[in-house]
Amino acid sequence: MNPGGGRRAEVRLSGQRCGVIDELPGGGTRFRYDRSWLELATARPVSLSMPLREQPYEAPGLLPFFSNLLPEGWLFDISLAGLKIARDDAFGLLLATCRDCMGEVEVVPAVEPDVVPAVESGAEPDAEPDAEPDAEPDAEPGSGIA
Predict the structure, then answer these.
(1) 129 vs 34, more confident
(2) Taking CA 41 as the corner, what is the angle to CA 38 and CA 42, rounded to the nearest 5 degrees?
(3) What is d(CA 7, CA 92) in angstroms, rounded to the nearest whole number?
């Protein structure tokens, strides 16, 4: 989860996760390279304007590099309308449109790794909830064969 409480996205370079971008309170953003990315001999920056370093990059709005990934002009307006995103929600537009943007950089909404689907107590995790316990395995639903 984002320590700032806002939304978070993984940033990938050529399909490999290289860091995360967080939405901060007040509309700012923070990008930090993953330590594992920085330790790679082949690591490269997502942009020449954001060289590899351990310290995060922060901006009062969307960091300029990420802002430049967003649609512009008439495409910006169409994207906002079609996706029902507020004009001032640059982070939301980034999440919605930059999963597959031009170039090697991808911005993908982060998934919480600790979330596990709930299972009712006593239920088998793979059991189908509507399956009849005494039904024949080969019986077709509604076939009348029991």
Answers:
(1) 34
(2) 90
(3) 9
